[in-house]
Each structure stands twice: as C-alpha cells, then as structure tokens.
Amino acid sequence: MSVLKSKKTTTLAAGLAVGAAFAVPLAAGLSTPAYAHPGHSHEAVTIRLDPLKGSNASGTAVLTPTADGGLKVQINDHGMTPGMPHAQHIHGDLSGKHFTCPGPDADTNNNGYISVEEGLPMYGGIHISLTTKGDTSPKSGLAVDRMPVADAQGNLRYTRTLTAAELPAGTLEHLSMLHIVQHGVDANGNDKYDMDGLGESSFAKSLGVSGIPEEATDGATCGMPVPTGVNTGGEAGVGVEHQGLLAFGGLLLAGAGTTVALGRRASRSANRQS
Questions:
Q1: Is there a contact between 167 and 128 (Cβ–Cβ < 8 Å)?
Q2: CA distance 200 to 2
Q3: Max CA-CA distance within the chain?
Q4: Neighbouring C-alpha atoms within 13 Å toward the C-beta of 166
C-alpha cells in the first residue's frame, strides 16, 4: 500500500496508528485566559510542540478549560507533511505515573525517527483522540477521516472545544500529567506517506497488519502541558505497562481496511517554513 500524490485526491488505504516540551509564549492567534470552576481554579495551559527526532514539524498548543467544565484545544503547526492527515492525541494517564516526550535516544533502531514502539513507553497510551468531530475516545485513535489535514504548505490549524462529558474524569485537574503527540513524517521529502521513505510500519506489521508506511505512524511532534510557573525539570519518563501497547495495537487492527479520500492540492509552496 502506498499513499499517492494526486491533483484531485489522496487516498490512504488502511488505518493509521499513531504522541521535552517547555511552556513558551503563545503563537499568533492563540490565547490563554484564566478559568475558575466552582471549587477549583484551572488556568489555561500553553505548550510547545517540539519536533521528535527526524521531524521538521513544530508548533504551539493551548488547552483552555471552559466555564462549563469542558476543554478548548487550539493547535498551530508548521512543517507537517503537506496534504496528509496527522493523527493526534492527548497521551498519558491520571494514575500518577510520570510520562514525558521521547528524546533522540528513544530511536533504538537508529533509523532517524521515533516509531510508536519506541515512543509509547515514554508518552503513554491514548487519553483523548483529538479528532475534528465526533468521538474523542481512544477508540477514535485511528479515525483518519476525522483527523486534521495539513495544508499545501505543511501548516496545520486545529480548534475544538470538548464538552465536560467528553473529558475523562480528572482531566482538567491533571493537565500537567498529559501530553500531546502528533504523527506523520516525510522521510524522503516527497510530500506523501509511502514505502520508499522508511519502509513498512514495523508496529503495524508486528500486529499482523501489512502495507502501512512507517512514515504514517512515526511521531512528528510531542509536547507536555505545563501550567504557568511549573518547571518540568526535563525528567525521563517511566515505562508504561504492556497493556498500553496492546490496547493501541487493538486500535490499529480495528482501523485496518479503512479507506479515506482526502482532497489536496498538487503542489506545495516553495516558501514552506521549517
């Protein structure tokens, strides 16, 4: 299976499995208003989405608790694979384990990128799927037709407000324990996911799903939400239990066979940001 560049559409056959950041000034168009919930004080959290090893993508995200107990998520990226869907999730859990973003040394097979197998022990399982509409549970981790698509210049803009009912219990109280991870890289610089870049996804293949490009599943960016004034200290993450990997693999298997037609432009701008 390959993802072919077309003037009309790009079709992605099969499901996509697909997330050390510090608080930074907001990107243009993003804001961080304070929020007070009855009995609690929740402030908006700004994070920097740093490129994972081998990726040229980066961005800024803002998580803003709403007055009715929901959560507004705003993401601005550049340097993403143009015209391609980028699966993205809030990862980690609320059990007290310390997860973080994988550093370059997580690339244990030395292919220059961070695969799902290499990154998952650091950033943990899916907590919320950041889809553009519909379900946001881990079950939608592979809902490629509902994941944001980068424009022809590799910019990705995402805004969605999740209702209180869509948030797992304790999410607002523990935002600093969670991470945002985005997936999808372009190893050979041809503006698409294909086998010529990094070959077949080893994670998908290990679960019995063949024909998925490694480019589609490898990590692009990762960022750790940190409330104002909190220093992350750059600590290394604690390994997640094997159940997390198996559950994530189950999502891949459930999504296998899905075909998504995505409109895209034929060419990318020569002024793409890096």
A1: yes
A2: 10
A3: 54
A4: 24
125, two tokens: 């399982």
pLDDT in 10s for each residue of the chain, 274 residues: 334 343 322 333 333 333 222 122 223 334 333 333 333 447 888 889 999 999 999 999 999 999 999 999 999 999 999 999 999 999 987 877 788 899 999 999 999 999 989 999 999 889 999 999 999 998 888 787 899 999 999 999 999 999 999 999 999 988 877 889 999 999 999 999 999 999 998 876 776 768 879 998 899 999 986 544 444 333 323 233 233 333 334 344 333 333 232 333 333 333 343 3
Residue appearing with tokens 């097979």: 109
> Which strands sit side by side in the sheet containing 88-92, from one edge to the other?
126-129, 88-92, 178-183, 219-223, 45-51, 58-65, 71-78, 156-162
Provide the whole-model pTM. 0.71
Handedness of CA 245, 246, 251, 256 (dihedral sign): positive
- Report how far residue 249's alpha carbon sits from residue 23's, in angstroms, rounded to the nearest whole number: 31
Q: Give the strand pairing for 219-223 and 126-129.
A: unpaired
Whether 267 contacts 152, CB under 8 Å = yes
